[in-house]
Amino acid sequence: xxxxxxxxxxxxxxxxxxxxxxxxxxxxxxxxxxxxxxxxxxxxxxxxxxxxxxxxxxxxxxxxxxxxxxxxxxxxxxxxxxxxxxxxxxxxxxxx
Length: 96
What we know:
Layout: E1 10-22, E2 26-30, E3 33-44, E4 47-54, H1 56-60, E5 66-77, E6 80-84, E7 90-93
Parallel strand pairs: 4-6
Antiparallel strand pairs: 1-3, 1-5, 2-3, 3-4, 5-6, 5-7
């Protein structure tokens, strides 16, 4: 799958992207628990999209890393598509 093919509220089987930027993490608390979340921008040769990084994922990636999202999810936030691993997905770094 490519960034240009993403549509909100759809499953992502596999997406390989490069991390363009990662924001400072912020803490959150909800009925489901507490933790940290950071926003990232990721891209491939077809475009760029925002991504949510949760808890340990924040420390796993940095600007310039190539990552693989498997079994992830594309949602919509403030009118724009946004990707993440969701409950059942995974994120892994691709070593060059």
